[in-house]
Amino acid sequence: MRVYAGLLGALDAAALVATRRRCVSLSAAEREALLDRWSRAGLVRRSLVAAVTTPLKYAHFDDPGVYALYGAQYDKSAPAEPPQPWMRQVTSGADVAANETIECDVVVVGTGAGGAVVAKELAEKGLAVAILEEGRYLNRGDFARGSILEMQAKLYRHGGLTFTLGNGVIQVPAGRLVGGSTAVNTATCWRTPEWILDHWVKDLALTDLSAERMAPHFDAVWNELGVSFSSREAIGPQGDIVARGCDALGYAHQPVWRNARDCDGQGVCDWGCPTDAKRSMNLSYIPSALKSHASLFTESRADRVWMEDGKAVGLEVVATATKARFGIRARATILAGGALPTPVLLQRQGIANTSGQVGRNLSVHPATAISALMGERVDPFAHVPQGYAVTQFVREGILILGALAPIDAAAAYFLSQGRSYTELMDAYANVASLGVMVEDHARGRVTPGPNGFPVIRYMMSKKDARQLQRGLVEAGKVYLAAGASRLMPAVLGHPMLEGKKGLDAFAAADIGVHRFLMIGFHPLGTCRMGVDPRTSVVDP
């Protein structure tokens, strides 16, 4: 509250300088005009307006009564399932005796898309597998319970407040629960494109990753997760709108492959699935590993790799609730905590880094969004967030996907102010949204910060920023071709575009990196694989 009070004081002082009157002394019309002008001004004023108004926007729309006005459901949580027999294999770190040492064949750090799969495969081969997860094992009764801010604090690492430091600010969210980020993503599934696999084989000599060799592995995962298209009802009108616009422009488009075959489109995928339709790791690979007698230790953080004669022989673990320490001794140690925690763990000990590449080569696939006011009902709060895609530009490094959001999340993301903002939110049932994600050429670096917090340095290239801008323009064209009247890109200084004229002006603008509101959903590369030990961290 003190921070926010300081922001209000700064706004008051800025108004005094600009108008010779304090902000509270201005009329409603004068305040609206001032905030609107500043939202299009320089970086400092734009940032001040955003910092002051965003919490207010969120707080107003985070309300069951407001949701009811839209005909939307606020709390979508469901009764918890009764415990399954294999849950006996799950132990909280707080219940492990201090200084105890557990023996196993393999210890796996992380329960996301990497750790869960390798744990299942090894457990099914008869190995004694111990799995570590820093978060809790939650179920559908814990998900989608009202306030999105509360859910974010509960489900995401560092409350979702992990950001890059550089010429632009990019949020890098990651799940902190059993299932990792798969439990809080939108269930979208894409196979690695063949041209990327070809590049890895030809340029990096990673012959095991050829399209031919990878195909049966992709098939196995696809079958395990039940990947398919969502129903038209779950995707909602957004799919028809995007298809209509793409057909008018001659652009390729399709429904999105998702690991949520029985999805009913409740639209809260980023805060856990309340129906268990999403086959995230906590509902698929982790239960399979536990049924094969793997042991899972929740609320347990890997703090140090035990090394003997240059070889990893296990882990020192900290129970997050009690801070007590225990050990897991293993024949093999697998670090699958993700592109941010894993290099931090290695760097703190100075191990596995003879190449000097640990923590380097970070790519995040920067993403932003654009929304459109349609002449028809979309109900973005009641359908799959990423149900439909524009695939025309994938080979060029631009993927355009649905980006529908619950009411309060969208309200905090729109950048307009005053009457134009309230008119937009009054019509939110008619708003459609697309996200734009690009293959980045810039590379960042991850280093240890205070209390294990990763420090992420990332300077986005001008080329990548132009790709983001181009993606927004192409998505805007799709919406205009489908009948949109207004466009709202998530770009500071450009809160609302009126029709084709507005989009053309946006396309011609020189937009700095710092103006984009960005998220990096796919941090990768910080423990690079390769055949040359001088330039890579791990070999195939």
Number of helices: 16
Strand content: 15-25%
Q: Quick one: biggest sheet?
A: 9 strands, mixed
CATH class of the largest domain: Alpha Beta
Question: Could you name the ranges where pLDDT drops below 50 across 5 or more consecutive residues?
Answer: none
Task: Say what the CATH topology of the largest domain is.
Answer: Glucose Oxidase, domain 3
What is the count of structural domains?
3
Q: Termini distance?
A: 50 Å
Rg from alpha-carbon coordinates: 24 Å
Average pLDDT, to the nearest integer? 94
Q: By helix and strand content, what is the structural category?
A: alpha/beta
Task: Supply database-style keywords.
nine-stranded mixed sheet, 540 residues, 3 domains, FAD/NAD(P)-binding domain, alpha/beta
Structure report:
This protein has 16 helices and 21 strands. The strands form 4 sheets. Strands 5, 7, 13, 14, 15, 16, 19, 20 and 21 form a 9-stranded mixed β-sheet that branches. A 7-stranded mixed β-sheet has the order 1-9-3-2-12-11-10. The N and C termini lie far apart (50 Å). The longest helix is centred in the last third of the chain and has 20 residues, at 462-481. The model has no long low-confidence stretch (mean pLDDT 94). Helix 1 (2-19) crosses helix 3, helix 3 (43-61) packs antiparallel against helix 13 (407-413) and helix 15 runs antiparallel to helix 16. With 540 residues, the protein is an alpha/beta fold. The protein is globular and about 70 Å long.
